[in-house]
Amino acid sequence: MAAAVLMYLTGGLGVTLCYHRSLTHRGLRLRKPLEYALAILGALALQGDPIRWVATHRKHHVHADAAGDPHGRNVGFRWAHVHWLYKRNDALPSEEELRKFAPDLEAQPFYRVLRYIHAPLQLLLAGLLFALGGWPWVIWGIFVRLVVSYHATWLVNSAAHSAGYRTYGTRDLSTNCWWVALISWGEGWHNNHHAFPYSARHGLRWFEIDPTWWGVKILALLRLADRVKVPPALNL
Which pTM was predicted? Predict the structure, then answer.
């Protein structure tokens, strides 16, 4: 139970809604206290601090599946899935490129501080889980959660650039992959996303289930989010 709850909080809300759809692509604007709270949850997913995550993903879109893409599928499935993280990768953003691709976050003291404390926050979470439920909670809430969350995210880079259908003729290899969407809070509708990167909604057809979009609509209803962007034909 601890793993499932934390998987949604850190992966679904922290990374997918905050890091990706809000901070990277500005598909919606969150109220600042909520944005910062969700950014902390995203940091607990241990996929990097917001500045590095956002800069890497923005660079991916600029060079999608071509030279310069940090995790381009053109290099191979395994590279796009995980090899790009630990093998030599000259396309990873340099310190200068972090400022170039994420100047909006670099300008905010909160994100500059979070860049240095995002890893130690994981230790605080582990301590809290141990206090609540001992080692079983730590194992499930930290180690099992991270492994499952990592592969769910990496499959967007690999499988959703390999398997599925293409609704839009983008200049990359992105696909709409239903089973990736099911395990990644709607991120698997990746061809839609590459066609409309600014859109807060990734599942554009009635059968393309997108739980994160449902969350965006709830936040907008509660006036916790605004400036929600979708493709013009869906802007009803």
Answer: 0.95
